Amino acid sequence: MVKSVDKLPGIGVFGGTFDPVHIGHLRSALEVCHQLDLDHVRLMPCHVPPHRTQPQLKAAERRLLLELAVKTTDELIVDDRELQREGPSYSVDTLLSLREEYPDNPIYLILGTDAFRQIETWSRWTEILTLAHIVVIQRAGEVLTLSDSLQAWFSEHQAQSEDNQLAFGKIWPLAVTALAISATDIRAQRAAGQSVKYLIPEAVLTVIEQLGFYPAKS
Q: Which of these, 103, 55, 62, lies nearest to 79 by C-alpha position?
């Protein structure tokens, strides 16, 4: 049975490699925070991504850039617990850890549509809704096409407005501002010697340039 809570603050969880963090990450996290009236969203850089290539920057470097990015935004905080664990950064382990700290608060795992489409390949993925809600963020006008099995699971657990007091167990599709920015493109532009100004926070760009991260290839 899904547990109900009495107006405890909701907590968002937004994971990724953040290699580097960019405006798209930050704006999506902030919009989810506001739309669901969360207390805050935790940006969690992963240590070893199970489904992606290894990050170009070291863990400490990615964490530094994240901390700079959210320094003036109270609703967004950096949580580095995945960087402290050895081995692959499985979301279910992160959520178990959070549940130990926040046994009754609503927790919302924030995923992009591409990540959600792959969720059936994740470690112990069926346990996720026993620990948290899932938020699927979609760009305005984007159609969420799913496999038959995932569509059935989505439909079974799709949230209704009155479910905002539940601690876990629902899937919330939310529309966010369409910002076609990707860390992959930013790294490629840096490698080509092109400017990435206005794609990432100014403080982050300053440190990237000062420390020579993502250098241009000769």
A: 62
Cβ-contact 122, 98 below 8 angstroms:
no
pLDDT tens, 41-72?
Answer: 999 999 877 666 789 999 999 999 999 999 99
Tell me how many degrees the CA angle 154-105-80 measures, rounded to the nearest 5: 90
Q: By the 8 A CB rule, do 15 and 97 touch?
A: no
Per-residue tokens: 199: 């794609």
Q: CB 101: neighbour CB atoms within 10 A?
A: 9
d(CA 81, CA 38): 20
Q: Tell the residue number behind the tokens 């969690």, with chain if given.
A: 44
Angle at 43 between CA 16 and CA 200, to 5 degrees: 75
In angstroms, the CA 217 to CA 194 distance is: 11
pTM beyond 0.90, yes or no: yes
